[in-house]
Amino acid sequence: MKSLCFWLLTLGFDVWWTLAVWGRGRFILFLLLSSFLMLAFTPAKRRLWVAVACTLGIIMDSLWCILGLFEFTGSSAVPPWMMALWLGFSAWWLWLLSNLRLTWYWLIPLGAVSGPLAYYLGMQLGAMQLLATPVYVWLLLATGWAIFLPLISLPVLLSHNTGRKTR
Fold first, then answer.
1. pLDDT digit string (tens) for 97-114?
2. Which of 24, 27, 147, 165 is the most exposed place for a label (fewest CB within 10 A)?
3. Over the Cα atoms of the chain, what is R_g?
4. pLDDT for 163
């Protein structure tokens, strides 16, 4: 049953992510409520780190925009729907990682591939457009995500090493 729950929650996040990126501002109330609900269901001892991961993600996207790599459709900064997406992703990722038990060195290539892939899919759904040379954008995103994903994963990884689970 635990495996079924894992796959249902993972599939549910993928559907939620697609709705967030495709619907953007049209579903902002739903996105905000559901992302805060994900935070509410996060164990209390992990909530602060979810907030830190969310904030770091928003800062990272803000830097990409300031550097002129891309812009979100209809916004010169990180829009509210993207902030809600960061909160939901942070809660989901830390939960997922506690169930997968990956080691930090797998998170580097995972981040380098999955981060830019998410932005590419978002671009295909009309959520953003590139402002800089594509190769430059994808290389910088890959580098940023190769650092970001292991960094936000530290609390879960450290709890695995000490034998504690932060669920």
1. 888 877 888 999 999 999
2. 165
3. 16
4. 57
Paired tokens of 114: 């999955």
| Domain-located, residue 45 | yes
What's the domain count of the chain?
1
Spatial distance between the Cα atoms of 160 and 148, rounded to a whole number of angstroms: 19
- Is there a domain that residue 112 lies in? yes
148, part of any domain: yes
d(CA 156, CA 148): 14
- Asked whether residue 129 is domain-assigned, the answer is yes
148 SS3 class? helix
- Element spanning 24, H or E: none
- pLDDT, residue 103, reads 83
Residue 118: closest CA among 107, 127, 105: 127
The residue segments making up the domain with residue 88 are 2-161
CA–CA dist 2, 21 (Å, integer): 29
pLDDT range class, residue 167, cuts 50, 70, 90: very low
CB 7 within 8 A of CB 131: no
